[in-house]
Amino acid sequence: MYTQGLNELAARPLAAGQENPELLRRFEARIDAEEKIEPKDWMPEAYRQTLIRQISQHAHSEIVGMLPEGNWITRAPSLLRKSILIAKVQDEGGHGAYLYSAAETLGISRAELVDQLLSGAAKYSSIFNYPTLTWADVGAIGWLVDGAAIMNQIPLCRCSYGPYSRAMIRVCKEESFHQRQGYDLMLKLARGSAAQRAIAQDALNRWWWPSLMMFGPPDTASPHTALSVRWKIKRFTNDELRQKFVDFTVPQARFLGLEIPDPALRWDAERGQHVHGEIDWSEFQDVVRGNGPCNQDRLQARRDAHESGRWVREAALAHAAKHARAAAA
Amino acid sequence: MSATGEIAPSRDASRAQLEYLLRLGDTSLVLAQRLGEWIGHAPAIEEDLGLANTALDLLGQARLLLAYAGEVEGRGRGEDDLAFLREEAEYRNATLAEMPNGDFGDTIVRQLLIDAYQVPLYERLAGSRDPRLAEIAAKALKESRYHLRYSAGWVVRLGDGTEESHTRVQASLERLWPYTLELFDADEIDRGVLASGVGPDLAAVQGEWSARIDAVLAEATLARPAAPRYRWYGKQGRHSEHLGHLLAEMQHLPRIHPGARW
Fold first, then answer.
1. A165 and A36 in contact (C-beta within 8 Å)?
2. What domains sit in chain B, N to C, each tagged with a CATH number?
3. Is B76 an interface residue toward A (CB < 8 Å)?
4. What is the torsional sign of CA A256, A85, B256, B85?
5. What pLDDT score does A236 carry?
6. Contact A79/B79, CB-based, under 8 Å?
7. C-beta of residue B2 within 8 angstroms of C-beta of residue B133
């Protein structure tokens, strides 16, 4: 669904200055010429590590992101909505699998990546550490969270790394479908009974600010954005994308007859943009550091699935090994 | 049947037809609901996808069957009225479908037992004298064949995998086996739809089911459990304790918002 670590370079790798200058020059010339970098091509270690981190965070986010919406599969209020929701959560699982494969092209295994998630070493999008309390949350996630994800991901379709760029083209198509389904769900509630309208407004109240935080810290606090932009991993800054999202979403909320929970929100005619109120970055930092409402539940659910599925995976491997031996004999 | 208009169905025949459609639709719906509980919690991402896939197919079948049942009933009830506003005793699913997920082995054995039943069932229903049911069955048949490949593949892997997986999946088989009798125990409704050419001969379905199951168990090095004694009759509305909980969870939103559209 989304990654928020777009602007963070890995801590370990060589600084750009320590790489072989000739290889680096050729690499950057290819980037400048808008050529795609492919798995077997030379790339600076910082580029590789940044991509591993970004793609795996994205994959983890898809997998953890199955949980908050999965929470409503058994309670979807119509059979059609149930089908749509199952298909959506299934798509997220598919994105996760696809993105883990893209990360593997950079020389790391899915098992290592999953271990990083389960040990708490890897991050995933903090938005999924908020609870889904009503049916309207399923709509709000589709509308706002997938909407924000699309803003982030459309530029990634042009990312300089070929496998990631291709993965994102496919993912974006499905995400935009999810976004429309989420909006349609909200529309039904907004045009429904007073109780339905109330849960729709409540969901917007709870998901609005976390959705703005999905774009990551403000540009003034994102020291690594410059290199990511130069290497065309990232095409726009966090604040640029956030602004786009606000301008796109405010009229949609108005059409629903719902109120954005930001008293400072106003249209700035001179800039031709909306101006939004102050984001509470301390909340964002808390959730990223593991102190959000559902961080423990989400990770525990992933660990439980991994642990209780261990005997199944072992059996599959044992069975495959027996038959490989039998075939060889 | 009534669509052809050639022979006006007797009241008994259309009651049997309605009951029969509910049996088919409810079994798919309840099983889809169970599989939906897994999504996000499966042993591997690929299994999240696989179980979701089966759930979606079954839900699609249930929607077609329940919508049709609502038309046959003629009281203006649609798929959602039937799914969300009927009580436990009005549900006509086979008891096996409502059995809790348990571990992955329990789920996959339950799936195998039902898939191996739905394949020969839909093969026959695809030739039903009821053209609408025949059409639904033809679509469902393709899906069920795929489901059977998936569940049989996993039962073989688990049965012929590690010592632990073998022990676990054999226990799953023992636990779920008693619920299979109901699938083939023809009652008045089953005999009614057989007589009118709508439904299949369950003895023939059982023969194929049994042969398929034996083949899978042999490959999986699993032992076929002894014939059970107690007979469940979920298809007559007499369920296990589990269905009430499943429905309470599934139905609560439409019930607390009567008349709402979603």
1. yes
2. 11-256 (1.20.1260.10)
3. no
4. positive
5. 87
6. yes
7. no
Chain B CB contacts of A78 under 8 Å are: 80, 84, 254, 262
Distance CA B218, CA B156 (A): 9
The one-character DSSP state at A11 is S
What's the predicted TM-score (pTM) here?
A: 0.94
CA separation (Å) from B245 to A65, A147, A222, A266, B36?
A: 26, 35, 50, 48, 15
Q: Is B47 in Cβ contact with A319 (below 8 Å)?
A: no
What are the tokens at A279? Answer: 């984001």
Write out the H or E segment, with its range, that includes residue A267.
strand A266-268
Residues A227-286 pLDDT 10s: 777 888 788 889 999 999 999 999 999 999 999 999 999 999 999 999 999 999 999 999
Distance between CA atoms of A51 and A33, rounded to whole angstroms? 20
Q: What is the 3-state secondary structure (H, E, C) of chain B?
A: CCCCCCCCCCHHHHHHHHHHHHHHHHHHHHHHHHHHCCCCCCCCHHHHHHHHHHHHHHHHHHHHHHHHHHHHHCCCCCHHHHHHCCCHHHCCCCHHHHCCCCCHHHHHHHHHHHHHHHHHHHHHHCCCCCHHHHHHHHHHHHHHHHHHHHHHHHHHHHHCCCHHHHHHHHHHHHHHHHHHHHHHCCCHHHHHHHHCCCCCCHHHHHHHHHHHHHHHHHHCCCCCCCCCCCCCEHHHCECCCHHHHHHHHHHHHHHHCCCCCC
Alpha carbon distance B67, B63 (integer Å): 6
A312 CB within 8 Å of a chain B CB = yes
pLDDT band at B9 (very low <50, low <70, confident <90, very high): low
B190-249 per-position pLDDT tens digit: 999 999 999 999 999 999 999 999 999 999 999 999 988 888 999 999 999 999 999 999
Tell me the DSSP string of A207-228.
HHHHHHHTT-S-GGG-TTHHHH
Contact in structure between A178 and A146 (CB atoms under 8 Å): yes
